[in-house]
Design goal:
- This protein is mainly alpha-helical and about 325 residues long.
- The chain has two domains: about 20-225, Up-down Bundle (Alpha-lytic protease prodomain-like); about 230-305, Cation efflux protein, cytoplasmic domain (Alpha-Beta Plaits).
- About 65% of the residues lie in helices and about 10% in strands.
- It has eight helices and three strands, in the order H-H-H-H-H-H-H-E-E-H-E.
- The chain has helices at about 5-50, 55-80, 90-125, 135-155, 165-190, 195-225, 230-240, 275-290; strands at about 250-260, 260-270, 295-305.
- Strands 1-2-3 form a three-stranded mixed β-sheet.
- A hairpin with a 2-residue loop joins strand 1 (about 250-260) and strand 2.
- Helix 1 (about 5-50) runs antiparallel to helix 4 (about 135-155).
- The mean pLDDT is about 75.
Length: about 325
């Protein structure tokens, strides 16, 4: 059914959804920012006061959560204010670059935690009597953080499709639920059961964070490298370009690929060689304008030709 909708309908639907979600998205971003600031203080208190490696790992994650919120907010704000003369393609890729930088820093810090935990395992004297003290205020602080994260997770879950910012926040809250819960469990186990559970928990948390962010960074690199748009989106462009005007006889080539989170679209259409230049120009310009207002489209380029036997445009032959 989506394929049969005119492009104007797709654009209007996206505009209405964006307008409806504007306030909830703003609430999600600011609530996450303020909550992460408070939880960062709580979890750092819990980590420092308990001297638990597992809680230190969760505390470091909370610090980076706050940094992630600030980075996302700054990148989004800067992207919307970039000088079009200095940055002709806009600032959409700035958020993607920010995610790559942040993910790399996150992996580096957690690697330090893993190394310290391994050192703790290797240098332990084997006496189980020196278990970490079971520090109740630390446990309460981390448990409170888990509760707040769960509420933020539920709220962002309903809005994750309306904003790339909220989608990143939702994934972050989801991951934090697992990390904090596991860290709390391993810290308590290291205090009450076996000493090695605490450093083992820190190693597992650090490794999990590194793996998760490595996957995220890889996906962000795909967007920067120009990964193709989904097949359904390309089919939508083909159908709407073909039905746009009776003057368009064929669709030669359609490409849609990422340039950051948004798509760049290239369409090669065929018109009769007798079509006046002014008409060919006006129709291609109108089609380009229609495509560029579609959701997630950053730029569109429409090329007009009179035959399809030539080598496809914009392709280097090695």
């Amino acid at each position: 059914m989506a394929l049969l909708k005119p492009m104007d309908v797709h654009t209007e639907d996206a505009r209405n959804e964006a307008e409806t979600a504007r306030l909830p998205v703003k609430i999600a971003v600011w609530a996450s920012l303020l909550a992460n600031f408070c939880l960062c203080v709580l979890q750092l208190y819990g980590a420092i006061s308990s001297v638990s490696l597992s809680l230190i790992a969760t505390g470091i994650d909370s610090v980076f959560d706050l940094g992630s919120n600030v980075l996302l907010f700054w990148a989004h704000r800067t992207a919307t204010r970039m000088d079009i003369n200095k940055w002709p393609v806009g600032g959409s890729r700035l958020e993607t670059i920010g995610n790559v930088v942040y993910g790399s820093l996150m992996a580096a810090v957690n690697l330090v935690v893993i190394v310290e935990s391994i050192r703790s395992l290797l240098t332990h004297d084997g006496d189980d009597a020196d278990l970490n003290q079971f520090h109740i205020p630390s446990i309460v602080a981390v448990a409170a953080a888990i509760g707040v994260k769960f509420l933020l997770f539920l709220y962002c879950f309903t809005l994750r499709k309306n904003s790339s910012q909220v989608r990143m926040l939702w994934e972050d809250h989801r991951n934090d639920l697992f990390i904090n819960s596991f860290g709390l469990l391993m810290s308590a186990g290291g205090s009450r059961l076996e000493w090695f559970l605490d450093p083992m928990g820190a190693i597992i948390i650090g490794a999990g964070v590194i793996i998760a962010w490595t996957r995220t960074v890889y996906k962000e690199f795909e967007l920067l490298a120009g990964k193709s748009a989904p097949h359904d989106f390309i089919q939508l462009i083909i159908y709407n370009a073909m039905t746009f005007s009776d003057e368009i006889e064929k669709i030669d080539t359609v490409r849609a690929y990422h340039s950051g989170p948004e798509y760049f679209v290239e369409v090669d259409v065929v018109m009769s060689k007798d079509t006046p230049l002014w008409k060919a120009h006006d129709l291609s310009q109108q089609l380009q304008d229609k495509i560029e207002v579609l959701p997630n489209v950053g730029r569109a380029f429409v090329h007009v030709d009179h035959e399809t036997t030539h080598t496809p445009e914009h392709r280097k032959i090695v």
